[in-house]
Specification:
The chain is α+β, with helices and mostly antiparallel strands and 303 residues long. It is built from 5 helices and 13 strands.
């Protein structure tokens, strides 16, 4: 590891109180203030990206929608569009109660900053019902602790990384992310458009299913577009890439806890027209498929 002053502001991870504090801050980020009927306000955390992290808006929008739904109905799908880059500032969420049926409930959410619509989402909720069941199998993957964390990889590069990139794009320190056989951030070689990512909260989370779903939505926006970069030997560090999430869809299949390891299995079946499509399946450590994702992103190579 390096002693570079650029990393002096990192939390002291040897302090036993650090991990619970970081997780509590992440949980607090999902706690919205009510500002009127079906209106909510969320605060923003700056993780070093130029715009607010899209996963934060996904998680907060899900919480806003869930606050207007009966407790016996859990979210099973959400479909969102990122309309404009958000600022590192409070975000206002307005929920429209589109439908309340016998088994399904539908909500629409609009997120605004300073009167500008930056994000919109539709989410569907369902009562617990019995039915047929099957799932894809989880692919083989090495144990999570055999892989370095994203933070450890970034620190190991030390002064080789331009100072303004040393924190940029790192997800909240309340979540631990370990990419299996991750490409070299500074000298990537072309490889298949696939990725395996282990992730978990670094300390126990509350026994509230909504907290786990909202934080999984938060985490699911991390790493998806990287799979589309793999065949082309580029990363966010390449200095010639403009990237942005355009939309995000997510389906919740089974209960899970994010304070235990989850495996994010990602592939990118297509890239064209300065856009790339990426898909993800999220498994528990014992192989249960708990969620699926899909995202299209803008990927433009600078001249």
């Amino acid at each position: 590891m390096t002693d570079s002053a650029a990393f002096a502001a990192l939390p002291d991870f040897n302090d036993p109180a650090t991990a619970p504090r970081l997780v509590a801050q992440l949980v607090e980020l999902m706690q919205l203030q009510g500002t009127g009927e079906d209106r909510f306000r969320g605060q923003s955390a700056n993780i070093g990206t130029p715009a607010v992290f899209g996963g934060q808006v996904l998680g907060q929008a899900l919480v806003a929608a869930s606050r207007t739904v009966p407790a016996d109905r859990a979210v099973h799908s959400m479909h969102a569009y990122f309309l404009l880059p958000g600022e590192h500032a409070p975000i206002d969420y307005t929920v429209h109660r589109a439908r309340d049926g016998r088994s399904f409930t539908t909500r629409h959410v609009i997120a605004k900053q300073e009167g500008r619509e930056i994000f919109e989402m539709a989410a569907s909720f369902q009562t617990r019902d019995d039915g047929i069941e099957h799932q894809d199998s989880m692919p083989a993957a090495p144990e999570p602790l055999t892989q370095p964390s994203e933070l450890e990889r970034r620190i190991a590069l030390g002064d080789r990384v331009p100072e303004n990139f040393r924190y940029r794009g790192l997800i909240s320190h309340g979540l631990e992310v370990r990419v299996v056989d991750a490409p070299d951030l500074l000298a990537p070689q072309p490889c298949p458009p696939q990725s395996l990512i282990w992730m978990r909260a670094v300390a126990p989370l509350p026994d509230d299913a909504l907290v786990h779903r909202a934080l999984l939505a938060y985490a699911s926006d991390n790493g998806l577009l990287r799979a589309a970069m793999n065949p082309h030997g580029i990363t966010f560090f390449s200095g010639r890439l403009r990237a942005a999430s355009l939309d995000h869809a997510m389906w919740f299949h089974r209960d899970f806890r994010l304070d235990d390891w989850l495996l994010y299995v990602i592939d990118s079946p297509s890239a064209q027209g300065a856009r790339a499509l990426c898909r993800g399946s999220i498994f528990t450590r014992d192989g249960r498929l708990v969620a699926s994702t899909a995202q299209e992103g803008m990927l433009r190579i600078k001249a």
